[in-house]
Amino acid sequence: MSATTLARPPVSTAARMLLDRSRTGLTQACASRTPSERYVTAHLAALRAAAAVLAVRSRPGGRGGPRSVWEVMPRVAPELGEWASYFASTASRRAAIDAGRTGVVSAAEADDLLRDAEAFHHLVESTLGLPYQQVLPLSLPSCE
């Protein structure tokens, strides 16, 4: 008997660019001065990493209106479904911050989201068959 291996779809230039932007966003989030800024930037970095998965795996079409990346992710990449649910649950806080509300997140919550966004980024790289790349510099005080 021979083992069957599933070929991964090639990673497009667009997906690689989204991952680069995600990586840059994580670094920017780490250097952010406020918890709100860190939270929003980390959330956007996770969103870009998720969009990279959709760029590789999703098929155009289907009826219905636009859907969020977090709604589409479980169907396109079921192995990332729990992450999609988690980040979808953080979107309302990000929207509140974007709307100008203050005191929405604590420093600890922003740091947690940043760590989770970095973990998700690495998982996306692995899922797409890309090599691990260190994202967050360990020497920045806000990232320790």
Radius of gyration from CA coordinates: 16 Å
What is the number of E strands?
0
Q: Which percent bin holds the helix content?
A: 55-70%
The rounded distance between the terminal residues' Cα atoms is: 50 Å
Shape: globular
- How do the helices and strands follow one another from N- to C-terminus? HHHHH
Largest sheet: none
Structural class category: mainly alpha
DSSP strand (E) fraction? under 5%
* Average pLDDT for all residues: 86
Low-confidence segments, given as residue ranges, are none
* Oligomeric state of the chains present here: single chain
- How many helical elements? 5
Protein name: SAV-6107-like HEPN domain-containing protein
Pfam families: HEPN_SAV_6107 (PF18726)
Domain SAV-6107-like HEPN: 29-125
InterPro entries: HEPN_SAV_6107
